[in-house]
Amino acid sequence: MLVDIEKRKPIKIPEEVAKIYGDNGRRIFKSIDRVNEPSEVERANRISYKILRRDLDFNNHVNNAVYLELIYEALTEEYSRVKFKDISVNYVNELKFGYEIVIDFYKEEDKFYFFFKSKDESQIYARICGVSATPIS
What we know:
By secondary structure, the protein is mostly beta strands. The chain has a single domain (31-132), classed as Hotdog Thioesterase (Thiol Ester Dehydrase, Chain A, Roll). 13% of the residues lie in helices and 34% in strands. It has helices at residues 15-21, 64-74; strands at 2-4, 9-11, 45-50, 84-91, 100-108, 111-118, 124-132. The strands form two sheets. A five-stranded antiparallel β-sheet has the order 3-5-6-7-4, covered by helices on one side. The protein has a two-stranded antiparallel ribbon with strand order 1-2. A hairpin with a 2-residue loop joins strand 5 and strand 6. It is globular and about 55 Å long.
């Protein structure tokens, strides 16, 4: 993976770099599906959270595992024991120490949606969809 250090986003590896370091011709990610906020479903829960130092990785932004811990905090009591067989995460903007956010939770059939936003909802940090491993009534 190659990262644009100014934009802090992954970029396509240029041919001249691939020639130097080799290219096995395999793509790991063909495409990443965008997780969209459900429009036909009412929000089931919203929690507020302030990013703590313990949430950060060595790059000083929220560690990927923390997002997964926080989705369980956003679940309602009714779904607090759900197990996921698949989780898709779209990281949109970096979350850093001290940010105050809200996490919106939606449930649609066997899908659980989570949206990490700034308190004023002007920024979105992550969009997550988890699919339940067992049927949910």
